[in-house]
Structures are given as C-alpha cells and as structure tokens.
Amino acid sequence: MTVRLILAKGREKSLLRRHPWVFSGAVARMEGKAQSGETIDVCDSNGKWLARAAYSPQSQIRARVWSWQQDESIDIAFFVRAFEQAQQWRTWLAQRDGLDSYRLIAGESDGMPGVTIDRFGDFLVLQLLSAGAEYQRPAIISALQQSFPTCSIYDRSDVAVRKKEGLELAQGPVSGELPPALLPITEHGMKLLVDIQGGHKTGYYLDQRDSRLATRRYAENARVLNCFSYTGGFAVSALLGGCREVISVDTSQDALDVAKQNVELNSLMCRARNSCVMMCSNCCVATVTAARSLT
Questions:
Q1: pTM of the model
Q2: Given this model, what pLDDT does residue 1 score?
C-alpha cells in the first residue's frame, strides 16, 4: 500500500495550481512509513488524491511532485518518456542555434524535481539534488542508457544543497568513456573548452548562452571588462562582436588559462599578457587581456 501524506486543511491550493513542492508546514500527518526519497501519494485534508511525489523527511520541502496522474508509476518507463520528450523539445533549438551542448533536463521545468542533466555532445552530466532523485538513481540511469545509448554519463552530484536532503556528495563516471580534461563544444559559432570533471557546476554555465550571444550587440569597438569571467565565454563572444579589447578577471588562474585557450581556439587573440592586480586587501586575481586584430 502506498504511503499517504495528508495536507493540513486549506494547504492544497498550491498543488491545485500545479506548484510541485509541499513544504513541511503544510503537512498534517503521514499515513504509513516511507524511506527518504520513496514515492508517496499526496492527499488533501479530506483524503482526495492530488499528486504522486518523492518524500524527503530531512528537507523543508517535504515532498516534490513527480506526477499529477494517479495511474502513473514512477519507474524506468516514466523517465524514458520524460527524457525523450525533453530531447524532442531541445532538438529544434540545437538545430536553430548551432548547438551541440544544452541543458537536457532542468529540474521541475521538465517534471523532474531535483534532476539536472546537461548534454555536452555525447556526454551527459548528471546532478541529482533531492532525496527523490537519488532514490530513483538506478531508474534514471537505466532510462538515460536506453534513451541515449551512444552517450557516456558522468555524475556531478557534488553540490552542497544535497546535504539539506540528507545526502552525501557524489562525483565520478557512471557509464561509458571518461570525459577528456577539456571537451570542445560549439555555441552560436564559438568553439569553447569545457572541464566536465573539475569545472563549475556541470562544467559550464549553459544557462548564460543567450546572454553571451546578446553581448555581441553591444561590443563593437568597445573596451570590455569581463569580471568573474570563469573560462571566458563572454570574452570570446565580445571579441566576435567586434570589441577593441576585453579584459577577463577571475580569482582562478586555471579558469583564466582556459579562457586564453578559448580565445586562441577561435583565432581571436593577437596578443596576451598575464599580470596580478590587487582587487581588495586579501584577494589577488590574475587577468588575461585579449585584443581583436584589426588587420
């Protein structure tokens, strides 16, 4: 028998509007016992079924909705359907914008609470950030392997938010090949190098793709200061937009080294220099400067 979470009177309104979270203060009682991450039914104060969700006893978000359909099971087939629908939606975007890398699964936006999956070519980078996502790890991985048989999977569930769900951090290869130290990707005509294993988040800030493209509209003949530059995606885009000079500033020398490689990879650097500048009393950062050739 499925465990039921019963809401306090009047606390079902957000679920009726399809908000996928149930906060601890909305819970009246549990009927039965559930493990962390296990699938449960959410019901209103009168016992009316509302949703099927993942239970998280250690989080203030006590349940995250998987499905609004009472007859839908949360199994491998469920995740296969979700992944294939998500890929169908992304395919047109990738073809339109010339992308080989994009966010395949964006958590609740794709009906996958606590699940983030970024696709970099033939590498899928997985982040499971909730108790329910971690509980479904075997089904999620099996569904990915079924939906994307040619792709390798790498786990970057090394995000501190997992601790709020009572989960340990996790990182490492799941299946297929180990990603290279720097994986080349293509974005709006730019060639960029991504560090899947050691880079920020899943290796790159894919969510800033449109902002990087927009930078080109304002960069012509400008001098650009790119603070918190990471690996220089905005710098490359500004140079493609015709800027006279771009200075990238970051606390990580490793990131700046990749930024320089990204500029060179796109044949945009005619000179480069490294220097140290004092930004505050306890923070020394390195800068890499690149100027577009005007010849």
A1: 0.89
A2: 67
